[in-house]
Amino acid sequence: MALNNPTPLGPWKITVYDQENFQGKRLEFTSACQNIMECSVDNIRSLKVECGAWAGYEHSSFCGQQFVLERGEYPHWESWSGSNAYHIERMMSFRPICSAVSFSPKSTQNHKESKMVLFERENFIGRQWEINDDYPSLQAMGWSNNEIGSMQVQSGAWVCYQFPGYRGYQYIMECDRHGGEYKHYREWGSHAQSFQVQSLRRIQQ
Amino acid sequence: MALNNPTPLGPWKITVYDQENFQGKRLEFTSACQNIMECSVDNIRSLKVECGAWAGYEHSSFCGQQFVLERGEYPHWESWSGSNAYHIERMMSFRPICSAVSFSPKSTQNHKESKMVLFERENFIGRQWEINDDYPSLQAMGWSNNEIGSMQVQSGAWVCYQFPGYRGYQYIMECDRHGGEYKHYREWGSHAQSFQVQSLRRIQQ
After folding, report:
1. What is d(CA A60, CA A192) in angstroms, rounded to the nearest whole number?
2. Looking at the structure, do residues A163 and A197 belong to the same domain, yes or no?
3. What residues of chain B lie within 8 A of the CB of A134, using their CB?
4. Are residues B52 and B89 in the same domain?
């Protein structure tokens, strides 16, 4: 049957452009790209996610600032960074987030849930809290301060944010990376400079 | 009993500072502020939401860019704007979002739900979709394009975003304003320039 379909889409598809507003050179990907410069593109200036959830990175080889990219249109840097803390406007590599669970209506009880345990201190020490839902303000839900010490992702993929309301630096946490264990902010990504996390949510696709 | 408590907090509290990182002149509010300059402050450069959900505005009298502010710490402009589309770094007025519903664990069935109807075209015309949950990507959930024509908020308060993943311009929609009816993007706020909405979520407090 597959032979009858010359362009199978697969579960992931992203289209990137080397100019803003979906202009300039256009490239389609259905799997990871470790360095966009190897595709003769200096930088990505706009993109469309057509299928699946993706992680975008500031530098090649999936390093630097992280950006969760869900289905939709991103016409310029600010549309996916959500932060101008840096003024380096780059996205050099990206990959599918394979462990992101499927969107499911609430009435469906048989879908796979996202689960994570938050710990007050690094190395899985201190007060802990198991979560399986989105939290635009951790403090409003009873978490005592503006930091999380460590995290264990038991299923699915999550994105944590520096500020409330899903703003600031993003940290993508996945059950199938690091064994799902993030015991210090140094393991959250090379851009992480503190334990500050004030909102977090599941990544669904 | 209330007399025994000299500083009743009430359901809303926000502390604002005229310098970044919670420095400089400090003011506490438990209700709306129409013009921060009337409190002898030129501009707000950092803030802490201690109770409730608030709407912040770029200009006095609740005009210009809108920012939903939930419990937590916002040390500088980028931490609440989530956008650098403008380079005017201002927040001149703010008010409680009275219709935001309470956070409730999923197991509680008697909490008041947030409900909204999305319409494909302006003036409540075309395909419609009733929602009561958060949508980081409307397209991933089956909405056909990157625009919403009009909206009817039936209960609670919502924040709509220009881009997927809760990024870009924010539009705060409430059941107790405009009769909950937002029939054209011109009614979303003075900063709205198009029908583009790619993610939205409930405001809870």
Report:
1. 17
2. yes
3. 134, 201
4. yes
